[in-house]
Model the fold of this input.
Amino acid sequence: MPSADKFRIALIQASCAIDPNQNLARTEWKIREAAGGGAQIVCLQELFRSVYFCQIEDHKYFNLAEEIRSSERAESAWPARWKTAPAARS
Done:
């Protein structure tokens, strides 16, 4: 077990498919893999649910936008055990 002043970080960078659900499933698998390897903090790439569409303005990518009405809705997409860091629970 790491000491209090050390922790393990995982960085995830992956290619994305056009299907956001496929990307989410792949990312969740990678997070579980990193946690299984001892990662306590996992950092994801920006726009991990969709292709990186920001290089050009193409209307075919507009449907990838997601509406988030509140932070509660955004948090509800993740399993409860991921919402609170272990140190904050004790």
Summary: The chain has one domain: 9-89. The chain has four helices and two strands. Confidence is low (pLDDT under 50) at residues 85-90.
